[in-house]
Amino acid sequence: MGSRCSFCGTTDGPFLKVEGLFPLLMCPACQAARSSSNRGWSNHRAELPGSDLDQLTELLANYDPGKPWYQWGCPLPGCDYWVILPWDLETHAAADHPGWIARYELVRPLPRQHRRVVFRRIEEPTAS
After folding, report:
1. Distance CA 10, CA 48 (A)
2. Which of 28, 51, 69, 73 has the least C-beta neighbours within 10 A?
């Protein structure tokens, strides 16, 4: 049996091998769908395929559960600010990054809790 995409089942390659608990294969169409929704890619500018920070309107905060204390990081390039509590990034964005706002979101409650911090570009008020 030939290679198949683990997400949609197509046999059209080339495939990207996604490592995890089980190795998975991903076709170019599924790669494009995942990258356009910002899932599965790092938020660092150099690692986002074919994008420019001036065009991005939304970024997810960096989260590293392997770190003992400072697990939440600012996703904006050149900023290496890490905090213990995710909602502290809201204050950091307001103080250090004009034009960006951060919001802490509880996507799913316990027992399988999922939290995230979303950085969004805000429109500058136009002078009338």
Report:
1. 25
2. 69
Kindly state whether residues 106 and 83 are assigned to the same domain. yes
Whether the ω angle into residue 14 lies within 30 degrees of 0, i.e. cis, is yes
Residue type, 103: R
For 69-108, what is each residue's pLDDT tens digit?
A: 999 999 998 999 999 999 999 999 999 999 999 999 999 8
Under DSSP, the state recorded for 117 is E
Q: Print the domain residue range for 18.
A: 1-37
Q: What is the pTM of this model?
A: 0.58
Report the C-alpha gap between 101 and 8 in whole angstroms.
35
Q: Closest by alpha carbon to 11, among 2, 24, 21, 23? A: 2
Together in a domain, 108 and 63: yes
Cα–Cα distance, 20 to 17 (Å, whole number):
10
pLDDT at site 37: 45
Is the per-residue pLDDT at 41 higher than 80?
A: no
Across 16-113, where does the E strand assignment appear? Answer: 16-18, 24-26, 58-60, 62-63, 72-73, 82-83, 100-108
